[in-house]
Amino acid sequence: MHIPTVGETIQIHSYKHNGRIHRIWSETTVLKGTKTLLIGANNRTTVTESDGRTWVTREPAICYFHSRYWFNIIGMLRNDGIYYYCNLSSPYVIDGLALKYIDYDLDIKVFPDLSYIILDEDEYDEHRKAMGYPDVINQILRLHMDKLINMIRQKKGPFEPGFIETWYEKYLMLKRDLRK
After folding, report:
1. Which residues lie closer than 8 Å to 24 by C-beta, 6 or more apart?
2. DSSP of 131-159, one letter per residue?
3. pLDDT digits over 117-141, tens only?
4. Are residues 104 and 125 in contact, defined by beta-carbon separation less than 8 angstroms?
5. Nearest CA among 97, 103, 102, 101 for reference residue 30
6. For residues 91-123, b (16+ Cβ closer than 10 Å) or e, as one string?
7. Rounded distance, CA 119 to CA 169, Å?
8. Is 153 a catalytic residue?
9. Taking 70 as the threshold, does the pLDDT of residue 153 lie above it?
10. What is the pLDDT of residues 79-91, one digit of tens each?
11. Amino acid 178: pLDDT
12. Is the CATH number 2.40.380.10 carried by domain 9-175?
């Protein structure tokens, strides 16, 4: 697997369990890349939906992907604090200049005070039946949802105070250096 280097630009491709593309983020700057972890950043990047519609992200975001976790975390820097959107998903792979994962519908939205809500449980149940998610996938996702909730409650990883801000500063410095 190719390990992207700091400053490299990659796309992020989200798929559904049936292999169909779900969403593509056109440009994310790599801030850290190892065999097991990728941290990236984007701001006002174009997102293309499966039906071809496009939209542009509204705020800077730090993206956290780990090859051993069945979730990824997006920290969005807004005027009133950091909001997180956590996708229950397969671990990521890098294929060429794209990071790829399977989106399994379940999401957790985390607010600046670290309170959270679980989203899209109905969509998960619908897709689980329609696409035939195996029972083992359901078990893995439930286990990793518990891990994710524990990370939130314990303020670990991207939820650690200062984590998102530190990586955002590195992103700004990298962008500044690349312009020189």
Report:
1. 11, 12, 13, 14, 47, 48
2. HT--HHHHHHHHHHHHHHHHHHHHT-GGG
3. 999 999 999 999 999 999 999 999 9
4. no
5. 97
6. bbebeeebbbbbbbbbbbebeeeeebeebbeee
7. 30
8. no
9. yes
10. 999 999 999 999 9
11. 75
12. yes
User: Residue-wise over 144-170: b if at least 16 C-beta within 10 A, else e?
Assistant: bbeebeebbeeeeebbeeebbeebbeb
Q: Examine the pLDDT at 5 and tell me if it is beyond 70.
A: yes
Alpha helix (H) ranges present in 9-134? 121-131
pTM: 0.95
Measured CA to CA, the distance from residue 31 to residue 92 in angstroms comes to: 16
Backbone angles phi, psi at 19, to 5 degrees: 90, -5
Strand (E) or helix (H) holding 15: strand 9-15
- CA dist list (Å): 30 to 26, 39, 106, 153: 13, 6, 25, 27
Q: Note the pLDDT of residue 177.
A: 84
Q: What is the pLDDT of residue 2?
A: 83
Task: For residues 41-52, give the mean pLDDT.
Answer: 97
pLDDT at 180: 67
Of 20, 23, 53, 128, which one is the catalytic site residue?
23
Residue 96 has pLDDT above 90, yes or no: no
CA distance to 48, 97, 157, 166, 173, per residue, from 12 (Å): 10, 9, 21, 22, 22
Give the number of other Cβ atoms within 10 Å of residue 35's Cβ.
8
- Coil, helix or strand for 49? strand
